[in-house]
Amino acid sequence: MKGYKNTSKNKNTREKARKKFLYEAGARQITTGFGDNYIGALAVFLGAGEFLMGLLASLPVLFGSIFQVFSPYIMKKTGKRRKIVLTGVLIHAISWLPLLLVLILDPAIAIWVLIILVIIQTSVEWFINAPWMSWFGEYVDKKTIGKYIGLKRSIALLFAMVSTIIAGLILGFFENSGTLYGFIIIFIIAFIARTYTVFNLKLIPPTNYDAKKTKVIFPNKFLKEKKHKQIHSFINFVSFFKFAVMIAAPFFTLFILRDLNFTYLEYMILICTVSLAQIISMKYWGKITDRYGNKIVLSSSALLISFIPLLWLVSQNFYYLIFIRIFEGFIWGAFNIAIYNHLLSSSSLEERSGYVSNYNLFTGLATFFGAMIGSLIAIYSLEHNLFMIGIPLIFLISGILRLIIAIFLGTRLKERTLHHAHKDRHMLLKLMVIYPMEGAKQNILHGWNFKKKLKSKK
């Protein structure tokens, strides 16, 4: 931005900005814990079935992915990257207040109002994602990006986990006397937390980056130009994989609360075990991506993620599912941080918003079609009494499809930012089993030390 000092180059300012982004991540995850994590539970409370749960998971992402395509263009035309982010966060915060109206409407109408409001929330959040990544990326050192993102995500997940626990306790307290009151309380807290992030982000100074230098890469241009070939393979893989994931993902909440008839407290515990596993493992994955690159982490974790829905078919015992959720959190932590790092490290400042925009578009479309196909499969199986019916069938299909995509597309990923040579077949066992077990043993014997550097392994 013209008229501002190049604050992103100043060491002290960069350090302060990175801390503010950590605070922002924590506050945003309070909104996640009190709000986002219980949107699905509210839909089940309102009587949503497979089809409506599929719509709730897919339509907001569809609208958000299309809407955000124009974000880099608006950023380039207005030159107001930071203002776009602040305005979007404020709108997202305010959107939690009309969500309270859902709680007093007739359930048949309320579920559709809920879907519309979540569409608005998601569209706004996705629209500001590209300018936010562009702004945030200026303050991150690429040499230690994995370590910092690991710390950032650990803090965020810690806040999300604690918030989810408290929200679950609130809903559990009101479960027998008036669940609506519980939802009102947690959504108001979500609004307050999101409002705080607006004031926190305002304290991060703008830079002298000229947003008009942003390269607007619309999807048709993105697909035609060969210079984007490397990011093409990455987006193709993640999109197809998310398609397979979303065949099952929207229905876990419905399966837990309706089919297994778990309480809100048990639902909360199953959510939090995922967060806890990610908190513990996130700094580990951050160091691994800094050292060995994102490709090996992404492809290896995708392979293991494929087995998660299949493991849900083995048993529905609550304590067994806790173990599965711990495994899920550990593996998804690797997958998510590798995606995040790859988007930041594989693009220049000018191209970053364009890459993020196209990534969001194609993965968003994959999310929409995956969720809708999952709901149609569940409904069809119930109507025709197939060998497996309803949600268990879509768990089976999702798991098999994930495995096929992980094997045939995950192994084809390329990466320029590979720091240490390795053989994928050897590193898979080391990264996913040996190193974590060694780290856990050392932490048990000597206490948790997150500052300990990862030793060189061969």
Please give a structural write-up.
This protein has 458 residues and is mainly α. It has a single domain, classed as Growth Hormone, Chain: A (Up-down Bundle), CATH 1.20.1250.20. The protein contains 18 helices and no strands. Helix 3 packs parallel to helix 6 (107-137), helix 7 runs antiparallel to helix 12 and helix 13 (294-305) packs antiparallel against helix 17. The chain is globular and about 55 Å long. Residues 1-6, 417-422 and 437-458 have low confidence and may be disordered.
Relevant terms:
disordered N terminus; disordered C terminus; 74% helix; Growth Hormone, Chain: A; 458 residues; mainly alpha; 18 helices
The CATH first-level class comes to Mainly Alpha
Structural class label: mainly alpha
> Please, what is the CATH homologous superfamily?
MFS general substrate transporter like domains
Q: Give the low-confidence spans.
A: 1-6, 417-422, 437-458
**Anisotropy-based shape:** globular
As for the number of domains, it is 1
CATH topology: Growth Hormone, Chain: A
Give the biggest beta sheet.
Answer: none
Describe what is shown at a glance:
The chain has 18 helices and no strands. It has 458 residues and is mainly alpha-helical.
Provide the fold topology:
Layout: H1 11-34, H2 39-45, H3 50-67, H4 71-78, H5 81-94, H6 107-137, H7 145-174, H8 179-202, H9 219-224, H10 229-246, H11 252-259, H12 264-292, H13 294-305, H14 308-311, H15 318-345, H16 349-384, H17 391-408, H18 424-446
Helix pairs in contact: 1-7, 1-8, 3-6, 3-16, 5-6, 5-8, 6-16, 7-8, 7-12, 7-15, 10-16, 10-17, 12-13, 12-15, 13-15, 13-17, 13-18, 16-17
